[in-house]
Amino acid sequence: EPLTFLEHEERNCLVTLMEDELQALFSEKPELELMVNEKEYIRLQELFKKERLGSLEREVVKLTETLDELTNQVTLLEAENEKLTKKHAKEMRRASASSTSSPGTSSRTLWQDQRTPSVERQRGTGE
Question: What's the rounded Cα separation, in Å, for the pair 9 and 3?
Fold first, then answer.
């Protein structure tokens, strides 16, 4: 068959066009279907089915490869997320430990934080 020498995409495109045109022709003139060589018509229908199946199988392979790649990316991102979460927790513990180790500093900071808005208010109003 001449179609065997075409690339998969070209072959699929050509077979799809042939199938669409044949269906359109038979829709226009149903009596033509009665004049067609039955064995050849069945053979052609099998070719259409085979091409659709092959196309779907190639699509499944591509989608499976994409799924595998995305699964690997998710695994890497989850591992990175876990690492960052642990690092963040460690930093939070370190910050918490340093603020509780010197109570005078944390009280002073709280006192300065409470005082700061009124000081800024006085500066803003010109008092």
Answer: 11
pLDDT tens per residue, range 8-28: 888 888 889 999 999 999 999
Tens digit of each residue's pLDDT (9 = 90 or more) over 72-124: 999 999 999 999 999 999 999 998 888 776 555 544 454 444 444 544 445 45
Length of the chain: 127
Type of residue at 125: T
CA–CA separation, 57 and 60 (whole Å): 5
Please check whether residue 16 is in contact with residue 24, taking contact to mean a CB–CB distance below 8 angstroms.
no
d(CA 97, CA 45): 76
Q: CB-based burial of residue 19 (10 Å sphere; 0-12 exposed, 13-18 middle, 19+ buried)?
A: middle
How many Å is the Cα radius of gyration of the chain?
37
